[in-house]
Design goal:
22% of the residues lie in helices and 9% in strands. By secondary structure, the chain is α+β, with helices and mostly antiparallel strands. The protein has one domain. The protein has a two-stranded parallel ribbon with strand order 1-2. The chain is globular and about 35 Å long. It starts with 14 loop residues before the first helix and ends with a strand.
Length: 69
């Protein structure tokens, strides 16, 4: 699963995206790879991204083999 830009006008935290993934983890029983914040320099500077704790996602998706932020 690849998640690119999740914002509209400002660079909000991706916490709401993480919450959705955790809430619906049962819909991804075969998910082995999760890639968050896949953006290019023209879309956003890395320093502008507001990070959050990703632990709940790792706990909700124990079969993940690859995880990148």
């Amino acid at each position: 699963l690849l998640i690119g830009p999740w914002w509209r006008d400002d660079y909000t935290s991706f916490a709401p995206v993480m919450e959705l993934i955790v809430a619906h983890a049962d819909r991804f029983p075969a998910l082995r790879g999760l890639f968050l914040a896949d953006v290019v320099g023209e879309e956003c500077e890395v320093s502008w991204l507001r990070m959050c704790d990703v632990t709940p996602v790792l706990e909700a998706l124990p079969l993940l083999e690859e995880f990148a932020v």
